[in-house]
Write the structure tokens for this entry.
Amino acid sequence: MTSIERTAYPRFKRLIIAHELHLFFSSSRDELEWAADATDCDEHLLALLLMLKSYRRMGCSPALEDVPEMVVDFVRRAVELPEGTLPVYRAERKLRPTDMRCVTGCR
């Protein structure tokens, strides 16, 4: 049987190894600058980076509660945010794939 991570309904793996965290969830300097300019607090910055990296990895924007704690911790530490920072949405709606085109460079 095909694992759930390889189906049309992408989900995070139960166990994510350190190499995958660094490969898929590390932010470039440009991504961090863009996200910092687009947000007004650490919580929104963390949420935006999680959505950006999750979208690039999975092709969709998962709900923040579906992002594994190990991914949240990795991104939080990678961008040197305070330990208690939690990801928070500001928008009322979820991002559509067309909203991410300017972020991912697709045209």
